[in-house]
Amino acid sequence: MALLAVDRDRIAAAARRVMARCDELARVSATSGAIERVYLSPEHARVNRLAAEWMREVGMATRQDAAGNQLGRIDPSTSSGTDGGDAPALLLGSHLDTVPDAGRFDGIVGVLIALEVARLLRAPGDGPARAGLPFALEVIAFSDEEGTRFGKALLGSSAVAGTWDDEWWTLTDADGTSLREAFLEFGLDPARVGEAARRPAELVGYLEAHIEQGPQLDRRGESLAVVSSIASARRFQLTVEGEARHAGGTPYDMRRDALLGASEAALAVESICRAEHHIIGTVGQLEAFPGAVNVVPGEARLSLDLRGEFDGERDRVWLSIERELDAIMGRRGLRWRAQEVHSAPAVFCAPLLQDVVREGILSTLPGGAGDPAVLFSPAGHDGMAIGAITDVGMLFLRNPDGISHHPDEAVSAGDVARGIQALAEAVLQLAADR
Ligand code: HGY
Ligand code: MN
Ligand code: MN
């Protein structure tokens, strides 16, 4: 039975506000004519200020944590009269950082939907917001889910999960700036990153609304889905070494062309992964050195993004890829090596949170009846890190054509409205369950 008193006009207005703010945030970019917002950049600082302003507008107490995540909090209105300031919190949110040439909704729409749910569920009245819930409500805008700048993803949520690794401080961006230097330039103290960590006892759980970034809901003609689990991920930087030589004077039987070895490797990744279920490998970056038109490439560097529904399957496929690359490079007289730059385990969404998300979706269906889709997420999310300290649940919104990490990424205002209603209902169902 649905618990939210649905005011359709209010939810429609909230959805319009979300869409308008997605456009406003899209204008905060490092590159004109495209969306790019990376960790610890001036753009990151600007969207945190905007998010904090919108959180305060809802009456939330706001703070930026020691890893650059932006948070807002509504305490519960407790009958015992305590200030509720130490009440455990349900975290709602997503991320505000982007990939290069991004769409306007990946991450962003989840943060804004969370804000609208907080607005809907705060108790009426002025002054610091209170919520008639048995737990506090926190909205979190994670600062680095994509890993665009330093290659290691989930930096912001890893800090919150208390799984920060000091080895990351020496990671560098394309300009050679280290993560440590970027922290200091942003105004953060690397020595205090541990203060961002939350203890499991402080949290009730984490719920994230996100566009599907795939075509399933669009193909089904449905708006929303429950997420069953989030794919495990491993990312590698591969280096292939051959020998630079003259492009004209060097006969083929004398060549050790690193780019051709890397190209065969990329094709091998595709054919090995195509033969599997729920294992996805992608080479997104490929560079040849010295990179001159008239020089046989002596070195090539390529990325590998490898994901799977289960860690063990993913790791088995990585061994197959390693064996195939050994064979390819052996045939071509090349050497190769791999540096792992990111690894995150698969996270299974907590049954209780899957249930309340399902109740939320049902509340948006005619007569509250239906059979909401339950989808595995091959896309990564901050829940992969947060799963280390609390239960994770996710709600997917239809993403027409499934195109994402691309300017054509889309979501409809109608589906955003249904997402706001479903997430608000899920929170009330969770509260009722407690
Ligand atoms: O890569 C991913 O799956 C996510 O969008 N960061
Ligand atoms: Mn993304
Ligand atoms: Mn995302």
Could you write a compact summary of the structure shown?
By secondary structure, the protein is of the alpha/beta class.
Main attributes?
binds (2S)-amino(hydroxy)ethanoic acid, about 425 residues, 10-stranded mixed sheet, Aminopeptidase, binds manganese (II) ion, single chain, globular, about 35% helix, about 25% strand, 5-stranded antiparallel sheet, 17 strands, 2 domains, alpha/beta, Alpha-Beta Plaits
SSE string, helix = H, strand = E? HHEEEHEEHHEHEEEHEEEEHEEHEHEH
CATH architecture of the largest domain: 3-Layer(aba) Sandwich
User: What is the structural class?
Assistant: alpha/beta
Structural shape: globular
Mean pLDDT: 95
SS summary, helix count:
11
